[in-house]
Predict the 3D structure of the following.
Amino acid sequence: MMRTGKLLGLGALLAVLVAAGPVLAEDSELKDDLRKDVQSLKDELRQVRDELAGLRRMGESKSRLEEVEMRLLNERLERLERAVSRFASGYSTRTSASFSPGTTLTTGTVRLVNDLPVTATVRINGVRYTVPPLDSRSVQLPAGSFVWEAGGDGYSYTTPARTYLSPGETRRITVFPPTVVYP
């Protein structure tokens, strides 16, 4: 903007000097000064034109640089899209399903019966279940094999035994006093 104003100012000064030229033509010193000033103005005008051409070239260079940057960005975006599509094609959508057990049983019942006059303890797969004296209780277990042992207050535990429980089955374990064998 400042260059344009300077250029207009130089042009106006040149016009004044051209118009004043015939009046001042008689004075040779003045002519020489006037020639020097006109030459100076021409040089400055040429310099302004060169600077303006340089700015135009810079604008064109900047435009070319922006085009190159845009092309590079587009190439990167295309590579990313190809990579995403490769990953997406290798994976399937997760599916899930559920079912209701209906009539399929996966558990059975163990009936613990205590014939002792004291509280009995039955360990099934390491879990302790207590049964009051001369009473019973039921325990739900998953179908399959299990290990159990029984004892009571003041009585020793039996040897661990492995038993199989079928789905829907009720199996009975009775804790009773040991039989006494007399000689």
Notes: The mean pLDDT is 80. The chain has two domains: 2-90, 107-175. Residues 28-90 form the longest helix (63 residues).
